[in-house]
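From: lab user (bench 3)
To: helpdesk
Subject: output format question, protein + zinc ion

Hello, I'm new to running complex predictions and I'm not sure whether the block I got back is the full result or only part of it. Here's what I submitted:
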Amino acid sequence: MYNSNSKKTQFKKGNHFGRKIKKGQKLALGYKHSKEHNRKISEAERGEKGHNWQGGKSFEPYSIDWTDTLRQSIRERDHYICQLCNKPQCNRLHSVHHIDYDKKNCCPENLITLCVSCNFKVNFNREKWINYFKKPKGDPETKPS
Ligand SMILES: [Zn+2]
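Helpdesk reply: Thanks, we reran it on our side. This is the complete output you should expect:
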């Protein structure tokens, strides 16, 4: 029992020693590598930041300002009523529509609350809807049929 234990300990010690040397060698080798690696990481981080900022914009159809908070504030402004059919918001959240269909144009004047079915409707006759919504309160004469 005692012998085998001490053998084990010796083996462990030897193994550990061997590892130590290997580790040291790797460390020495890895120093240059890690220096370069660090540089690469910092470059990648810088690149990534730029990527997140601009790439996020190009991949994501909505601009950075397009948040739930913004949409919520538009719904609130429109009293949670569809600005086309006057349907109040019920279980399903009303959509917030971009009047000029430019999803990057997130100024409140370009945003309007629509129920889901009206939001679907305005995907057709776009030019007419733009004219309609751009008139104050929506001129019924320009309302597309
Ligand atoms: Zn509606």
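A quick orientation on your result: The chain has two domains: 1-60, 68-142. Let us know if anything else is unclear.
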